[in-house]
Amino acid sequence: MGQKVIIIGAGVAGPVLGIQLQNAGYHVEIFEGREDAGLEDGAFLGLTPNGLNVLLRFVPETLLRQDCTTGSMRFYNQQGREIAALMTDYQRELYHCETIQLKRHRLNEAARLAASEKKVPVYFGKKCVCVVETEQEVTAWFSDGSSASADLLMGADGTFSAVRNSMFPGAARPVYNKNISTGGYARLPELSTPLDAIRMTFGERGFFAYNVSSKGEIWWFNNYYRAQEPSREEVRTVLKSEIKNELLRIHEQDDPLFSRIIRATDQVIAYPVYDIPKLAQWHTRRVCLVGDAAHATSPHIGQGASLALEDTECLAKCLGNATTPEAAFAAFQRLRQPRVEKIIKSARKVGNAKSKPGRVATWFRDRLIGFFIKAQIKKLHWIYGYRA
Ligand SMILES: Cc1cc2nc3c(=O)[nH]c(=O)nc-3n(C[C@H](O)[C@H](O)[C@H](O)COP(=O)(O)OP(=O)(O)OC[C@H]3O[C@@H](n4cnc5c(N)ncnc54)[C@H](O)[C@@H]3O)c2cc1C
Prior knowledge:
Blueprint: E1 4-8, H1 13-23, E2 27-31, E3 44-47, H2 49-55, H3 61-65, E4 68-70, E5 73-76, E6 82-86, H4 89-95, E7 100-103, H5 104-117, E8 122-123, E9 128-133, E10 138-142, E11 147-150, E12 152-155, H6 162-167, E13 175-186, E14 198-202, E15 207-212, E16 218-225, H7 232-236, H8 238-250, H9 256-263, E17 269-275, E18 287-289, H10 292-295, H11 304-321, H12 325-352, H13 359-379, H14 381-384
Parallel strand pairs: 1-2, 1-12, 2-8, 5-14, 12-18
Antiparallel strand pairs: 3-7, 4-7, 5-6, 9-10, 10-11, 13-16, 13-17, 14-15, 15-16
Bound molecules: flavin-adenine dinucleotide.
Residues 8-14, 31-34, 43, 45-46, 104, 127-128, 156-158, 162, 181, 271, 291-292, 299, 302-306, 308 line the site of flavin-adenine dinucleotide.
């Protein structure tokens, strides 16, 4: 029997890492804090070729494409004139797959399904509250009073990682980006055929993006500037209705379709945006952080899930090549940190630039965006072309 590994968190990183470690001969168990039925919430996110290529080793593309939208983008000005397009069909030749958008819970569900097919057990309702490491083993304690011990423990428990808090109490905290990521799902009879690209409009007072999924559902998103960090209670209660009203106000002078979409949305999804620009230490002798737990990024360039997937492949390879787990963890951090920090920085820059453009800037934007988008394909190669 190989070494025993505990993974805390069954988002996307946990199960995909679990499969790779199990394949390498480790005995893996995954512990997820939420109850199975409680995993249904969440927005949708983009998976770009760098992350998608890792996932497709374990999850069939046909399964992902059952409920998705395209990753291509068409940009419009306030008058509804198309000012640029960034289509993703070029990616298939270069990277063998194309960016898609998926509901977060569907992505995580697909990853967990793949893990269970490989007989990697996932235990739900196991909220890790602390981790204790000794010379001989590492133990995770759960809120129900139970515990589990192993040779190694991987913290794949997201931005507010309990593993990180427990192992590195003085570590950098997630930083609120003064932004609420909002969106939702709606159905309108006049907009029920899948679109070839996300429609992104630079409206009078803010931008609005929507697409229609393979199931004929409208998926929309927006960003909402909010200087004050909302409390957990606000996120649960007032934030969603505050945002619905505010978005209707922001878009009252834009295409009336936007307001119809917002009104037709039962549940506006609203997440305060956080990132962790730099975390000094990702590991100890027996414990290592992966995905958002190590390097949460804001969603503005759609890289959080893809980076988490890249991590899993890199960490599994490091463990396969190094003489000790600690050496593998150190190599993993060394290999991954410069890249993830650069992406976190780029995402922040894009997020910060989302203010209302002035008239001159708008004039230039409408004329130059097409050029920048073409240049963008080359500029994005360092992100999309990455292989662990
Ligand atoms: C609104 C929004 C939009 C986003 N858009 C994009 C996008 O377009 N593209 C993109 O690539 N990324 C996007 N992201 C980020 C993306 O969702 C994450 O980067 C990605 O899911 C990271 O995967 P992970 O497995 O590391 O963490 P997570 O998906 O956060 O999974 C962590 C898991 O650990 C569990 N957990 C947490 N605490 C505990 C505990 N104490 N004990 C046990 N289990 C625990 C959680 O329930 C969860 O299941 C977005 C995020 C948000 C919030």
